[in-house]
Amino acid sequence: MALRAAPWWISRAVLVGSATIIGMLGLWWVATSGLRLLNPLRLPAPIEVWAALRQILDSGYAGATLWQHAAHSIGLVARGFAVAVITGIPLGLLMGWSRRAEALINPIFLLLRPIPALAWIPLAIVWFGLGDAGKVFVIWLTAFVPCVINAFSGVRNVETILIAAARTQGASTAQVIRHVVIPGAMPMIFTGLRLSLQASWTTLVAAELVGAFFGLGRVLNIAGQDIFPGMIIVGMAAVAVCGAATTWLLTLLERRVLIWRRAI
Q: What pLDDT digit, counting tens, does each position of 115-172 carry?
């Protein structure tokens, strides 16, 4: 029954979400174009945002078209996020499984963790210059922490009785980790991946505000300097769409990996 109800529930969520967005757009039009309650320099009207969108799509803005800016930003997020996954999840699994590894690594991790990733931007510029490497580095720092913490918590939340049962059946340590610990930690790992991906987009925009030649952050930066509210809204909306699209792809991957959760 749960599997049959899922499409209905998804369609209902889509309808409710669409109604909410339409309602917000309606209020936006009333407040700007309809009753003119807001100054256009503070919040542009929908028609002004539409004109800005057509401009960046057709002739470009800040050195490139919207598609080029978005593709560049997605590439940076993908690289930083991928490096964070490759490095953060194994480290979290190791710390969660081994008390010795936790005792060795955790003090350094706790020391560096409170430092905001944005605080590394000046040092990243010194180390890597104004190219993409520094931005990927900062994104990696942001996405790395949730990956480690959630992988660590996922391992520690695996019931010890399951590990003991596997050992009773003669499973080796490698088999226990592969067939019991990692599957049991997967829900928490994917939670960390979602948090990491969202943080990556937030950090990307901040990193691209300084010394970027392409990207959605550069669009926001140049539009702010030009006092172009319509283009600012376009840049913000593009970040939101790209972030939502990548999160949706991650959700699809989670559903494929955690097939057993579909029946819940």
A: 888 888 888 888 888 788 889 999 999 999 999 999 999 999 988 888 888 888 888 8
Which position has the token pair 């930003």? 73
The answer for residues whose C-beta is within 8 angstroms of residue 75's C-beta and 6 or more apart is: none
Domain 46-263 has CATH 3.40.190.10: no
Q: How far is CA 16 from CA 3, 237, 252, in A?
A: 21, 20, 21
Q: pTM of the full predicted structure?
A: 0.84
Rounded to 5 degrees, what angle do the CA atoms 209, 249, 28 make? 55
pLDDT by residue (tens digit) across 19-38?
888 878 778 777 777 666 76
Residue from 113, 70, 12, 54 nearest 219 by CA: 70
d(CA 222, CA 62): 6
- Label residues 39-72 b or e (16+ Cβ within 10 Å = b): eeeebbbeebbeebbebbeeeebbebbbeebbeb
* Three-state SS annotation for the chain: CHHHHHHHHHHHHHHHHHHHHHHHHHHHHHHHHHCCCCCCCCCCCHHHHHHHHHHHHHCCECCECHHHHHHHHHHHHHHHHHHHHHHHHHHHHHHHHCHHHHHHHHHHHHHHCCCCHHHHHHHHHHHHCCCHHHHHHHHHHHHHHHHHHHHHHHHHCCCHHHHHHHHHCCCCHHHHHHHHHHHHHHHHHHHHHHHHHHHHHHHHHHHHCCCCCCCHHHHHHHHHHCCCHHHHHHHHHHHHHHHHHHHHHHHHHHHHHCHHHHHC
